[in-house]
Amino acid sequence: MCEEVEKTCKEMGIKKVPVWFDGGIRNGSDILKALAYGADLVWIGRAVLWALRCDGQKGVECIIRILNEELKEAMLRSGCYCLDDIKKNKIIYEKNELLFAKL
Q: Is 71 exposed, middle or buried (0-12, 13-18, 19+ CB in 10 A)?
């Protein structure tokens, strides 16, 4: 999907458009998938709002810590050691399915 946006922008003469992913983020592997598909930024609003409602600032700090740890774990499982590796390694190899493999 991000490729389609980039293609359309190139056709219009726009060099770079930041892609923001918003919606459906429940855990760290969802963040990894969004980044692998080309997102430059991933919003985690729903999780943060639930955490804020449940435990205030401590809840928000906790959910950010949890998502960060889950993202790190998902990255390591797919062979990525930094955020740049997610796009360089092309960890999503099926266009229609979210399957992970290090190429």
A: buried
